[in-house]
Amino acid sequence: MLLSAILTGLVLGGTYALVAMGLTLQYGVARIMNLAYGDVIIAASFGAFVLFTALGINPLLGMLVVIPAGFVLSWLIYAVMLQPLARRSRDRGRLEGDSILATFGLLFVIQGVALVIFGAGFQSYSFLAVPVDILGTTIAANRLLAFVLAVVFGLGLWLMLTRTRFGTVIRAVAANPASAPLVGINVDSAARFAFALGGALAAAGGVVVSMYLTFSATMGVIFTMKALIVVIMGGVGNLMGALAAGLILGLVETLVASFIDPGLTLAATYLIFLAVLVIRPQGLFGKAAR
Amino acid sequence: MMKLLAALVALAALAFVPAFAGPYPLGLGIGILGYGVLATAWAMFSGPTRYISLATVAFFGLGAYTVAVLADVLPYPLVLLVAALVGLVVALIVGLATLRLAGIYFVIFTFGLTELVRQLVTYYEVNVTRTLGRYVFLPIGPEHIYWQLLALLAATLAIAFWVSRSRIGLALRVIGDDPDVASHLGVRITRTKLTLFSISCVIMTLAGAIQAPRWTYIEPSIVFNPTTSFLVVIMALLGGPNRLFGPLLGAIPLFLLFEWLSANFPNHYSIILGLLFIAIVFVLPNGVLAAGDSLWSRLTRKAVRP
Amino acid sequence: MSLLSLRGVTKSFGGLTAVNGLSFDLIAGETVGLLGPNGSGKTTALNLISGYLPVSDGIIALSGETISTIGPERIAHRGVARTFQLVRALPSLSVGENVLAALAFRKAPVWGRQAESHIERLLADVGLAGRAAQPADSLTYIDLKRMELARALASDPQLLLLDEWLAGLNPTELRAGIALITSLRQRGITILLVEHVMDAVRALCTRCIVMNAGSKIADGPTAEVLADAEVIRAYLGDDHA
Question: I need a labelling partner for A156 at 20 to 30 A (CA). Which of A79, B142, B266, C154 fits?
């Protein structure tokens, strides 16, 4: 029972870590606090759902469509909606406020579209729902796959950021947007790319979610919330922090759901969030500010 | 003095509306007053500090739910008092956790707060009282709700006016401009923000409590509807969050538009409102009144120049 | 009797130690210059005294009471006021309201009708008479500096911290600025000023403290300190010593 809960928790935590990495890219590099992030995740879940149920396309292959779509959609959102806001705001606080409001509006747009097409009910499909034996307990193969995918994407992103020239550019902008232009970096295009990459990760997360969880058009808010909490726990812009924080959150939620009450998982999440805010607002793994 | 007199006359005139308005116009009046209260209360805190609260409906719903739970047990005025206290306690918890920190933490916390409160209330109802969904039978007709909301709106505007003229209002503006300078001038930042946030939240809670009898049947998914928080923010932004009557003036057209949209496009209104919201953020970052002011000053300046 | 005393004050940012074991005293009524090359830790020292940054180690005391453990608003209430290296006006407020903000939240607040005469007098003191109604963001650079000084004075400070308040002024403005600070000194306000304008330091400061790389390297009468070989080396490099 405990082992099975821990495995389930790790799987869930892996997904949280994956989506949080996308959000930390968007906030850390593009300086956009994207409240519609979870709705992009859910949109991708619906995409995978449609591909699987209507066209019979396996979600792994579906990713080849959904992830680029997430990238392009986020690219467009940034170019059309957010870049003008970034250009007109002189300081970071102003951009933060404007981006919060604009993406708050976007949340209702994406959610509204999903509601019109799919209605408010919960959706799911059955993919690889076969039990697999691990350490004497069983877990569904789709969950195992979800975990493997989260690890693969996380590792891929980390390698890209640390080993490629492009990753260096992204990290430079994250560390200091004001002086990045001095070394010949185009901050605008780096921010746009980071935002789009974040959207691609959200889409990847959405497909992963659709493989093993039920989802609905109005669930975006919850995913945004959890991704935000993971980002803050891990320290803004800190990928390894997001990974650790995501796993912690997934474990705690699953343990609370299995041993206390499933109705209290969000409360447990919030309790952790509250504790982090009170004790270490710079994040469990963040460096102390100033 | 003249202004005060005009305000009192307007208030008295509005109080006579239920005498000749039919049920539908009266319902619209209640809606406008309710949103007017929420938007004014929202702007009282979020306008000067720029701490954007996305949790209006968490407090509104708590108020409504408190009435649903206690209406049979306590006399009505006492129920309102308890609702206000509940709102105050939640505001203090949220405020103490987040208001010491940068605004972004506050926004994030309030963003999920509605969902958290909704789930906790549901949990409480399912596991403790075993009744999800309650009936509110109070001998309070729509005209009484209208009068109560009118009184609450008048009180809210009076408080907002007093705040704008008082030391605490100046403190908020200084904090909104530059919190570091504020602290070096001796402003107690956290205490100031917490006080205003609490006042604002208590008003929102009361607005929900007063409107509870309108629903007759209440359950968490009805009273914790996130669209309400969303509407309140757009209303305040449209009218201009830093003007006394700005949020109220934003509430009137947007509420009517929302009514019309939800009657004619029940499935698409959130898309339309979302797009409208984005447009407002783009075009009118300081609200219609400020935009009108700057247009006016541009026109008059042009007129002066040869 | 020393008004301000620092004992072993240290501030590290991660691996960088910006201020390292700084100790000095200010006697009430003194005007002292805090000098040193860029990056020597002068502004950090001011930020530690005003409570803008928490100390990593050491003790700062005002009139014998520790202030290094309390926040900037309580330090302000003990009578410490400051200006900022880059002027920080409150842009959405008027000039008068900028000053009112200091009057309204000091230890003995002034508010309402009473405040108006205070504001006029404070603005007149810094050469901004009759400008109270003007929006702060419409002022020129020198006037912003004047307003910031009026705001600091409105807090009724015992100790005034000026961070390069004279920087960026033209010669006429500089003369007016020096005269203004001289008048404050005559009112008995203790002043600690970070400054690069040496003529101003010579004209205003009876004593100078020199920092280099986070540590104090000289402390004494202005003329002696400015002639000190180590100070010259810190500023200009070894060749000139």
Answer: A79
